[in-house]
Give the backbone structure.
Amino acid sequence: MRNLTMMTDLYELTMMNGYLRYGKDKNRACFDLFYRRRGDMTAYAVAAGLEQVIEYVRNLRFTQDDIEYLRSLAIFDDAFLSYLSDFRFTGEILAVPEGTIVFPDEPILRVIAPIMEAQLLETTLLNIINHQTLIATKAARVVQSARGDKVLEFGLRRAQGPDAGIYGARAAIVGGCQATSNVLTGQLFGVPVGGTHAHSWVMSFEDELTAFRAYADVFPDNCLLLVDTYDTLGSGVPNAITVFKELRARGKEPVGIRLDSGDLAFLSRQARVMLDDAGFPNAKIFASGDLDEEVIWDLKAQGAAIDVWGVGTRMITSMDNPALGGVYKLSAEEVDGTFVPRIKISENPAKITNPGVKQLYRFYDRRSGKALADLLALDEEDFSSGEPLEIFDPENTWKRMTLCDYRMRQLLVPIFENGELVYDSPALSEIAAYAKQEMETFWDEYKRLNRPHRYKVDLSQKLYDLKLQLLANRR
């Protein structure tokens, strides 16, 4: 387990020094971590990264070397540096479980702790949650576009550094990918790994057929051949068929072929006919090469005969939307033992925050099991009675609906209490299964790749009134 305590922005430490100087170190504060929508890709998000957040918080401590380095900057008080020597997290954290579908402005995670502790967490929590949630969301969109086909994560060589490759692959599994090419991710998290050979394998032999025969000799039970090194239909597929027949004569069946370039719709259809005519209808056609959800959607519409999709660069980097837009905002601060709500005001209405200590609820239709709406409410409110509940759009308050035959659940669950971990992290395979189940609880119109319908995320009447009151009293 790594100690990431010093992986923080300098201003977190300077603020902590200031809090101590002004006697605010014992005051507790509440911070919400949420994201703001950036286009259709983040109309919803798949929460990910909680396991690494837990690891980070459990290992929070400043070493003597850390403190000496901070001392060398000559900007911190001796009292503050002394405080850091005994620093531990003593507060509480609530979060949505990994794999939960969340929407803009909804808390993914909530921290209540002495303000110095809560402040320090900001940078690293955002780093972890922003990255993994972004990649899990991108993967979910890719998997959705594949419409039941298997999707593999192939992005390690294009990821923006080792951690992005390892944890990006983990997040892609949360988002629905069934395997990764990243062997270390497979080892660390117990997920399937997959892959075949590169063009260099074929090029290293005197001819393509010899290369295919050699690969089949080494891996007779897992023979998947890359057929586009020279001429996909002229030599690649015919040579693969020759080797497949030789395998069958030895009592082995091939896995299939992989296409990595060219017109994948045309080539896959032609290759499918060739394989079927040769007696290999069960041989799979894998495709890779700058794929994303939009390309896959179009290829499916064009009748591509592709069974498995290997997606790399555009998923591991979320190329078309490279940042989630997550933020960490103070929503309440303890004054004389009582939490006082805080609000961030902006000329941009989208940046005005929701004040107070809050809980997030999701309501489901009992008959269909589909999600109806989410409600952000003050922590003191109780919606467990099952009584009819009127909710309304906080921007267009005339848009109202009454929830009747519903079931409800709280999305934010305890992770740390009094600094102690109280949550058991599921295995990655369990998280992925939960995320898949979560996706199925939402109607398709909310999950459209382009111009999805807006899912209802409302404020309770008490929270709405509190927000208006603070806006009216802004200073």
Remarks:
- The first strand starts at residue 28 and ends at 35.
- The mean pLDDT is 96.
- The radius of gyration is 26 Å.
- The chain has two domains: 10-136+321-472, 196-287.
